[in-house]
Design a protein that fits this description.
Blueprint: H1 2-7, H2 10-65, H3 69-77, E1 85-93, E2 101-108, E3 132-133, E4 137-146, E5 149-159, H4 161-213, H5 227-297, E6 301-306, E7 311-314, H6 316-322, H7 326-329, H8 344-355, E8 360-367, E9 373-384, E10 390-399, H9 401-415, H10 425-442, E11 445-454, H11 456-463, H12 465-482, E12 488-493, E13 496-504, H13 507-522, E14 525-527, E15 530-532, E16 535-543, H14 550-566, E17 572-574, H15 581-599, E18 602-611, E19 617-628, E20 632-634, H16 636-645, H17 648-669, E21 676-681, H18 691-702, E22 709-714, H19 723-734, E23 738-744, H20 752-756, E24 761-764, H21 766-770, H22 776-792, E25 795-798, H23 804-812, E26 817-818, H24 829-835, H25 841-849
Helix pairs in contact: 2-3, 2-4, 11-12, 11-17, 12-13, 14-15, 16-17, 17-18
The structure holds ligand C2E and magnesium ion (2 copies).
Residues 607, 623-624, 635-637, 640, 656, 680-682, 712, 714, 742-743, 766, 799-802, 819-821, 826 line the site of ligand C2E.
Length: 850
């Protein structure tokens, strides 16, 4: 109901309410009128009936009193004019006790009579009764008096229909009046609404427009002076105020916007500044954090102290380096780290430098809590505040103990020999110079000894470098223990040592010391189960007589050492100025040879040994050559005697043995497995204690079958045969190594020893072969020697075969082997390998044909 009502516009609502209110008013009025009219009509009816009853009572009074019912009936029949009366009766009182009454007269309108609801109420009523009204009927009852006495009562029952008919009429009229009123009010409203409602509608639309368009310039013309007019006027004022407010607002907004913009710009600037500051700060923070991490993780120790040296900060490296815990260090004075190494001057200098605001750099020898000292390289920097006052010190440092140790080790290595830890040549020279300066002041003498080991190279080759090192160390320690502690032992190179004896009382004392040294070195040096023998040759020079400086004194001691070597080694020799030109030349040659031995400037060439009958290669003879750095190849005759004199022949001889055996092994491996090797051995070599060891070593390292090696000993050697030599020869033979007598027939020895010795080969000296073709005597000797060989089961080799003729004669004489330039001169190993293939039957056949 309210739904559609709300949808109505205000004007219609107004119309509806006006109309409804009008109708309600009219309806109320009409209802009141109807009710009043109905009541009046009913009262009229009651009054009329009561009057009628009274009148009828009066008229019937007599008849009643007379008890004449006819009259009474006639009276009642007058009611026929009143057509709404249904029934009328006059009652007289009956027996009261039995509640009886009696009808005197009655009237009945048959047209209206019906079974009435209240007709039973028609009875005698002694007093006046209020009308009894039912739906359709009304009953009145009036007493009939005779005097004051009630003689009867009259009751009239009438229909209400006429009353209702009248009411219907009234209602009809009322409705008509209502309709009329509605119509009239509608007409009036229609005519007035145009005038009264239009401004209101306009007003409403204007409000709608303002609301929708937000156009506050809208104004409505004021046409009435009533409330609406005031409202419209108020609206207009409101609009003006709104517009003013709007304008003000706009201005304020513009101002605000301007301010906001300015503020925003300011804020943006501030923000940018803030961002850059934040960035800067975060950069600074990052840098700070980096810095702090760098300091914390730095390998260097970092210490920050106040200006009095009280420690305020240490990094982890500090703990590691100094051994002090952070908790121990913080609050302590930096002097905590001190050792007793530095004196007060050192620290005074440090504080002076810092007090001047300078950076102090230095190496501190500090002490750890456990007492260990270490080298602490520190850089201490004063830190100033903004007023330039020194407030703190920052010390960065590192432990350079290892570096110092390394430097010391390097320093030591630079001046000492790594193997023996003896001073080297440069330190020795320094010490000699210092000793000479002292000796000069104190007018004392100084001896310089140059010591060279004899046969060391061989020992080294034979027993290996490890053994060589053992020997050198042993020599060093023996030298040290032989001399006084204030004297100096140095290792100059390989097997060269030097000793400086200071404060000599007597020159001969140097000889005594040298002898002691020789004796101590002559004892065997032990390496595993081996006993290694080396001797030494010592040259001595004396300051000031033999030189004024270290270089000259060493040089002269060196020369004296050579003299000792050439005198037969294992001895000492004082430097002597009386060396003449020849001796100088010889000495130079000897020195060159000694160097040749040391530097192994030798090679072996191989001369073929041929089967004379089969005309094939039987073996080779190893012949030594000196590859002189300046003079080229030097033949053995020129240097073997010198080697023999100086005993260097032992060392060289050992080398020849090993080299020749190794070469033979190579040839055996490359297919020439029948080749034999002859090597020459000097008689001096039998004096060498190590000779047999060298031989065994050569056989072992090469692995050749022992019988493929033949040792040639010149016939001269047999002159000096003694028991020792014989034993050695026997041992050689026992080893299975063959023995040959070289240059046989020169008459140096008797033939008798041949049968007593384990000889396998006789090599007939080439002087017999040379004239073989022309000298009958020689031919006889050669023939006899070949015969001797046959008898003693000794093979015979003819040396120096240069012609086919000689070869053929030897063949005729049944000489087993031949050697000579006819076949080939001695060749390098490579040349021999090239020569061998063409050396067979073919080559010899060719020679025979010549
Ligand atoms: P040797 O053991 O009698 O060696 C033979 C010498 O005769 C070699 O001289 C050889 O070149 C030479 N010869 C060979 N065939 C002929 C020929 O047909 N006519 C002539 N005129 N000479 C010929 P080389 O090489 O000068 O050796 C000389 C000596 O040096 C050797 O005589 C030997 O006693 C000695 N010798 C060579 N090598 C060594 C060695 O390693 N140790 C030792 N201790 N002595 C050696
Ligand atoms: Mg020979
Ligand atoms: Mg010979």
């Amino acid at each position: 109901m309210t739904g559609w009502l709300n949808k109505l516009n205000y004007m219609h609502k107004l119309t509806l309410s006006s109309m409804l209110s009008s109708l309600l008013a009219v309806l109320t009025v009409l209802t009141i009128v109807v009710v009043i009219t109905f009541n009046a009509a009913r009262n009229d009816l009651v009054e009329n009936l009561q009057t009628t009853a009274s009148l009828l009572g009066a008229s019937a009074n007599a008849s009643i009193s007379l008890k004449d019912p006819a009259y009474a009936n006639n009276a009642l029949n007058t009611l026929v004019n009143q057509n709404h009366v249904i029934e009328a009766k006059i009652f007289t009182p009956g027996n009261q006790a039995e509640n009886e009454s009696s009808v005197v007269a009655s009237y009945k309108n048959d047209l209206l009579f019906n079974q009435s609801d209240i007709s039973p109420q028609l009875k005698f009523n002694p007093a006046k009764q209020d009308p009894l009204i039912s739906q359709n009927e009304i009953l009145i009852s009036e007493p009939v008096f005779n005097g004051n006495q009630v003689i009867a009562s009259i009751s009239i029952l009438a229909s209400l229909q006429p009353l209702y008919d009248r009411l219907k009429l009234i209602v009809l009229f009322s409705l008509l009046a209502l309709a009329m009123a509605t119509l009239i009010s509608f007409v009036i409203w229609r005519s007035t609404q145009q005038t009264w409602a239009r401004p209101f509608v306009k007003f409403s639309r204007a409000i709608q427009y303002v609301i929708q368009e937000k156009d506050y310039s809208k104004r409505i013309k004021v046409t009435t002076k009533d409330d609406l007019g005031e409202m419209i006027s108020g609206f207009n004022t409101l609009m003006t105020q709104i517009q003013a407010a709007q304008l003000k607002l706009k201005n304020q907004q513009a101002t605000l916007e301007y301010e906001v913009e300015a503020r925003t710009e300011e804020l943006t600037r501030a923000n940018r500044k803030l961002i850059s500051e934040v960035a800067e700060r975060s950069k600074t923070e990052i840098n700070l954090s980096k810095l702090s991490r760098a300091v914390a993780q730095a390998e260097e120790s970092v210490i920050i102290t106040d200006n009095e040296g009280k420690i305020e900060y240490v990094n982890p490296s500090f703990e590691k380096i100094t051994g002090y815990k952070k908790s121990q260090a913080i609050g302590s004075n930096a002097s905590l780290l001190r050792s007793d190494y530095h004196d007060d001057d050192f620290y005074n200098d440090l504080w002076d430098t810092l007090a001047r605001g300078k950076v102090y750099k230095g190496v501190f020898i500090n002490s750890r809590p456990d007492g260990n000292e270490y080298h602490f390289e520190q850089s201490i920097t004063p830190m100033r505040n903004q007023h330039g006052m020194i407030t703190h010190f920052v010390a960065t440092g590192r432990d350079i103990s290892e570096r110092i140790q390394n430097e010391e080790a390097l320093q030591f290595m630079a001046h000492h020999d790594a193997l023996t830890s003896l001073p080297n040549r440069s330190l020795l020279s320094d010490r000699i110079e210092r000793a000479l300066a002292r000796a000069k002041r104190e007018r004392t003498e100084v001896a310089i000894m140059f010591i060279d080991l004899d046969g060391f190279k061989m020992a080294n080759d034979m027993y290996g470098h490890e053994a060589g090192d053992v020997v050198l160390k042993s020599v060093a320690s023996r030298l040290r223990s032989t001399i006084r502690s204030q004297d100096t032992v140095a290792r100059l190179s390989g097997d060269e040592f030097a000793v400086m004896i200071e404060d000599l009382q007597n020159v001969s004392d140097a000889g005594i010391v040298a002898r002691k040294i020789l004796d101590s070195l002559a004892l065997p040096h032990e390496h595993g189960n081996e006993e290694i023998f080396v001797t030494a040759s010592i040259g001595i020079s004396i300051f000031p007589g033999d030189g004024k400086n270290a270089r000259v004194l060493l040089k002269h001691a060196d020369q004296a050492m050579y003299q000792a070597k050439f005198k037969g080694k294992a001895r000492y020799s004082f430097y002597s100025k009386k060396i003449n030109a020849n001796e100088t030349q010889r000495m130079q040659k000897e020195q060159a040879l000694i160097r040749a031995v040391k530097e192994k400037q030798f090679v072996l060439h191989y001369q073929p040994l041929m089967h004379t009958d089969q005309k094939s290669v039987h073996g080779v003879e190893a012949l030594i050559r000196w590859q002189h750095p300046q003079e080229g190849i030097v033949m053995p005759d020129e240097f073997i005697p010198s080697l023999e004199d100086s005993e260097m022949i032992n060392e060289v001889g050992a080398w020849v043995m090993e080299e020749a055996c190794l070469q033979l092994a190579k040839w055996h491996q490359s297919g020439h497995d029948n080749l034999v090797m002859s090597i020459n051995v000097s008689p001096r070599q039998f004096n060498d204690k190590n000779f047999l060891n060298y031989l065994i070593n050569a056989l072992q390292v090469s692995g050749i079958p022992h019988q493929t090696l033949e040792i040639e000993i010149t016939e001269r050697a047999f002159l000096a045969l003694n028991n020792k030599t014989l034993r050695i020869l026997q041992k050689i033979s026992d080893l299975g190594v063959r023995l040959a007598v070289d240059d046989f027939g020169m008459g140096h020895s008797s033939l008798s020893y041949i049968s007593k010795l384990p000889i396998n080969t006789l090599k007939i000296d080439r002087s017999f072969i040379r004239d073989l073709a022309h000298s009958q005597e020689n031919a006889k000797i050669v023939s006899a020697l070949i015969g001797l060989g046959e008898r003693l089961d000794i093979s015979v080799t003819a040396e120096g075969v240069e012609t086919v003729e000689q070869l053929m004669l030897l063949e005729d004489l049944k000489c087993t082997f031949a050697q000579g330039w006819l076949f080939s001169k001695a060749m390098s190993p490579g040349d021999f390998e090239n020569w061998v293939p063409g050396s067979t039957t073919q080559r010899l056949s060719k020679l025979e044909m010549v």
